[in-house]
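A.,

Following up on our hallway conversation. Structure tokens first:
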């Protein structure tokens, strides 16, 4: 079991999550996203991103910054953060949203190309007392609830 982190350590770990996102953006991964947001329509794709705790906390902070305290389920089964056809927390979207490209955009990033970044997210998860990947909605709701 991990030891509780101090507020400063927690802040540093969340900065590290953002740094990982930045490093991913700098990698030469083939992508032809046209912004159709198909990957955000979970019922349509049958796939939902799974988040580590650091990712969930970063996403929850962006949700709060946007003035929301909870996620509201959608009637069509799409991500509750998809608003007007666009991601409402785009800069803070989770790792899976950045790598699980739809078929039209070239398919998912090869795991080997991002394995080291996933490992770092998992290490941060362990330090924050997380328990591995959790479904996007459940993970962000828990982070919003301070769990
Ligand atoms: S967090 Fe944003 S990018 Fe990820 S599934 Fe939801 S709306 Fe799409």
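Then the amino acids I'd put at each of the 147 positions:
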């Amino acid at each position: 079991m991990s030891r509780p982190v101090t507020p400063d350590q927690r802040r540093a770990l969340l900065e590290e999550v953002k740094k990982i996102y930045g490093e991913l953006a700098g990698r030469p991964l083939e992508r032809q996203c046209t912004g159709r947001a198909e990957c955000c329509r979970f019922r349509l794709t049958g796939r939902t991103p799974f988040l580590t705790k650091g990712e969930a906390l970063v996403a929850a902070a962006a949700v709060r910054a946007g003035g929301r305290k909870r996620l509201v389920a959608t009637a069509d089964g799409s991500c509750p953060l998809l608003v007007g056809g666009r991601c409402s927390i785009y800069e803070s979207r989770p790792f899976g949203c950045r790598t699980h490209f739809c078929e039209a955009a070239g398919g998912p990033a090869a795991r080997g190309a991002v394995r080291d970044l996933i490992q770092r997210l998992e290490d941060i998860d362990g330090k924050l007392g997380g328990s591995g990947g959790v479904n996007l909605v459940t993970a962000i709701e828990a982070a919003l609830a301070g769990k």
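The helical segments are 7-25, 42-45, 53-65, 95-99, 111-127, 136-144. Curious whether your intuition agrees with the design.

B.
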